[in-house]
Amino acid sequence: MFVNFQKLPEESRIWVYGAQDIISSENQELISDKIFAFLSNWSHHGKPLTSSFTFIKNRFLIIGLDESKNPTGGCSMDTLQNLISDLDNKFKLNFYERMNVFVLNQDEINCIHASKLNHFPEINLKTLFYNLNIFKKGDMKDWIIPIEMGWCKRFLK
């Protein structure tokens, strides 16, 4: 069952997908149609899943699920991941490149492979990045953190 993303409780489980390049408004519309249709009918063992999605900064796709109503499991998760994978391939979003770091640089988001962080002298341990390793909607309040607090700090030497 699809609901407005803002109506999902803060404890809702989320999946964050970062696109290597900006997602155009035209592509966001096409992707939204597919995700809306999917989430409107998404279920686990015949029980509807209360879920939603949103795009943030034309770069991030976030899927949310209110597990307090009905939890999800293997088969329903597989169907979601299959959809995201299909969208990823169709629109060339590179959602599954987990080594991408989304650096906030002068109000602009730059997608940089972690192994190349050292190639940018303006990037240091204090540089802010979007931490995609969050699991609850409420975590989005603090998902922009300094590199020194994130998984990618080991790539800055």
Label this structure with key terms.
157 residues, alpha+beta, 2 domains, 25% strand, 3-stranded antiparallel sheet
Would you kindly provide a written description of the structure presented here, covering whatever features stand out?
With 157 residues, this protein is an alpha+beta fold. The protein has two domains: 5-91; 100-155, no CATH class. Helix content is 22%, strand content 25%. It contains two helices and nine strands; from the N terminus they run E-H-E-E-E-E-H-E-E-E-E. The protein has a four-stranded antiparallel beta sheet with strand order 7-6-8-9, with no helix packed on it. A three-stranded antiparallel beta sheet has the order 1-5-4, with helices on one face. It has a two-stranded antiparallel sheet with strand order 2-3. Helix 1 (25-41) runs antiparallel to helix 2 (74-91). The longest helix is centred in the middle third of the chain and has 18 residues, at 74-91. The mean pLDDT is 95.
